[in-house]
Amino acid sequence: MGKNGVTGIIIPMGREAVHNIVHHRVLYVGEKSDDWDLIEEGDRVFLYDSEVSKQLEGEAKIRRIYTEKGEDLLKNLDRLCQTEQEVRSHAARATEDEFPVIEVEGAVKYSRGIICPFNVPPGGLKVTEEVSSGIFHANS
Question: Where in the sequence is the domain holding 88, given as residue range(s)?
């Protein structure tokens, strides 16, 4: 379990990125937020389709969390769930030279999307007992 009762993070991404993670593109480059400091290896990352369904579409176990320089990210395009254009766009918006990266394992896609009644900011949303309960009640 993560720090301070946090068990994972909901990450917004496009439908293609969700598909790529489920099909073994194991790296996700994120926008740094305070919530990233509360997750750790072994927690869950929940895949939120921010483009089409606006629902949770799958999940994976966090294998590793680290930072990487922008130029090194482009060397790993074959392992990134995002497209080269998305990574370059993200790099152009960034205020730092290093980017947070989550490496996942055991990704699964849900048979149907799960309603997420919370606003998921670009940097992700930490999963606490309150968030888990809200998602459960929205889908009951």
Answer: 3-135
Alpha helices per DSSP H over the chain: 15-22, 70-73, 84-93, 129-138
User: How many domains, in total, are found in the chain?
Assistant: 1
Alpha-helix residue ranges (DSSP H) falling in 23-128: 70-73, 84-93
The answer to the question of residue 62 being in a domain is yes
| CATH label of the domain that carries residue 129 | 2.30.130.30
Asked if residue 140 belongs to a domain, the reply is no
pLDDT tens across 25-64, in order?
A: 777 877 777 888 889 999 999 999 999 999 999 999 999 9
Q: Containing H/E element for 11? A: strand 8-13
Beta bridge partners of residue 80, listed in sequence order: 27
User: Is 51:19 a contact under the CB 8 Å cutoff?
Assistant: no
Residue type, 51: E
**pTM summary value:** 0.87
pLDDT of residue 42: 93
pLDDT band at 96 (very low <50, low <70, confident <90, very high): low
Look at residue 59 and tell me if it is in a domain. yes
